[in-house]
């Protein structure tokens, strides 16, 4: 009876009366559905509690979190909160400990090391090397067998890389087999700058540590905290074994080191936090002996002569070292006849003065970047202008000719470099284009594939056929490979400022109107001298590589010239 009454009630309840309109029935049905779902979920995504939103956003990729934070003010506050970035960063690298979690997360998300072999048929990037335990990549020093990597926490790693050899001994990476932690609290490290083939014997590491030897105190007394002191440790490059250690007084605090001289008379330069330069002499053939002795450390003459200047940076080369002061003035020491002749084109004043006496470079603006090799040097001032000096036999100065320069000469059509690298007979420059892409330009000798895409070399800077990652911030080159270190630092500011006359200086290149007109007239005269269509296209591609265009525009013009050349041949 009850079952029959339930069925009757359901039938009468579901049946719509004749007097009730259809719209009213649908409205009541919609209200019942809304009442059911209202208690289950909020009306919008923004109605969730902030703690739940933080938890959900922390599982998104870093790229999506940054994009989501640009949508509205509410999501911007949530996506930029430190708890959210802390969870993201600890998921990628649990050993990171910092106050700025957003910077650390983005730095670990974009970190990678790419390489492009010079010889062989592989003119593409190899698989990126990513060390999960490293907090970004600050500096690298590649060798033929492995690589030294310094992260932003001051940890020095030794990466053992499995390699395969193809086509006449061309090196191509396969994977990182394992790694070794050499030292912690590392401030700086360096190898022999004269070693072109990166086959130096010892690696010098500047690090901060706590003094181990402490006196035993009586019972009940509290032991004082040990005073931190700096030390320099020598590691064997072949296996990473420590063979020697130099320990300094706690009052001497250093921030950078550099090497000069030969193995038997190695000069170690140390830059203090106060901007003073000290030096000491070592004999690398005796560092393996198990004995302790004292070494005399003296102040360098650059600090004795320039008492009112503070040295902020050291740049060592082949028997040469460059000093940059806090005011941007550049000085260098030259300890070799050959290097002096290459840089100045003469030996007349060499030998008449002390080699430790600093020589000033005549520049009116502040120097912010520099690089030096055995034959030449390159630098950039605070306005982004690039200057080169030295031997120009292979066109490594990028001036368009092969005439040596005894003083810094400005390079046309190239400005605002991210980094400069001087090789033996070539120069590489990393530049950010206007469309935020980065390209590598090079000039000089192209033998051995040093300038990918330009086997014959070039006396002017040309765009290299290299796939440059977007976050590349550091480049270095060896005989076998070109290495690119990636990482985006959110707190890194620009090095350059505009010229006093008010000219705008976007990332890329910029010249005056008169200079640009003369340059294009010179390009046209070069095209008119060509005799065949193939020469015209080759010269036009070379001119396009030198023009201040975006990367996509240059690629389009190159492909268009190739299409025109194929059509003319057919």
Automatic annotation (TrEMBL):
Pfam entry (one): RCC1
InterPro entries: F-box-like_dom_sf, F-box_dom, F-box_protein_24, RCC1/BLIP-II, Reg_chr_condens
Listed SMART domains: FBOX (SM00256)
Swiss-Prot/TrEMBL RCC repeat ranges: 384-433
Sequence ranges assigned to domain F-box in this UniProt record: 42-88
Name of the protein described by the UniProt record: F-box domain-containing protein
